[in-house]
Amino acid sequence: AEERLPSEGDGAARVVAALQTAEREAKSESRDARYDVLDGHWPRDAQLAERLGEAQSRKGHAQAWMELETQSFSRSELLDMLGRHAREQVQNLTELTTAATSLEFFRRTVAAMASDDSPQTRSCTVCLEEGLPLGKLAITP
């Protein structure tokens, strides 16, 4: 997936760069720092969530992750769990890429509208009125 993302635009390239930075940071982070991050993460995967126990709130999951670390897993269980979690992360990255690409489009559109005040640029495609002030315009899909 990482090799495919840069071809999907500037937003995707930024996601790949952020992913690479996060990977470098993760390799050098301490155990405490890792649990600080996991404190706010609850997996969508039902089987992994079941292993962690019941979610208590939106934050405060570090203890559940610490307890998971003490559990024993067979090789097949561990590979299965890691595979499911990896697929979840791919889904998360895909959603992040889509959002970053959408945000990039929005920023470019706003910049174009702000820099070009010609009546044709600032027109309504519904009522055909031209020369609308920037504050009266909306960007729709």
Nutshell version of this structure?
The chain has 141 residues and is mostly helical.
Description:
The chain is mainly alpha-helical. Helix content is 60%, strand content 0%. The protein has helices at residues 10-28, 31-38, 46-52, 62-70, 75-115. α1 (10-28) packs across α5 (75-115) and α2 (31-38) crosses α4 (62-70). The radius of gyration is 22 Å and the shape is elongated.
Percent in strands: under 5%
Number of distinct beta strands: 0
Query: Biggest sheet: strands, sense, closure?
Result: none
Number of helical stretches of at least 4 residues: 5
Give start-end ranges of low-pLDDT stretches: none
Outline? elongated
Structure classification = mainly alpha
Order of helices and strands: HHHHH
- The level of helicity is 55-70%
Separation, N- and C-terminal Cα atoms: 26 Å
Q: What does the radius of gyration come to?
A: 22 Å
- What multimeric state do the chains show? single chain
Mean residue pLDDT: 84
SSE topology sketch:
Blueprint: H1 10-28, H2 31-38, H3 46-52, H4 62-70, H5 75-115
Descriptive labels:
141 residues; mainly alpha; 5 helices; elongated
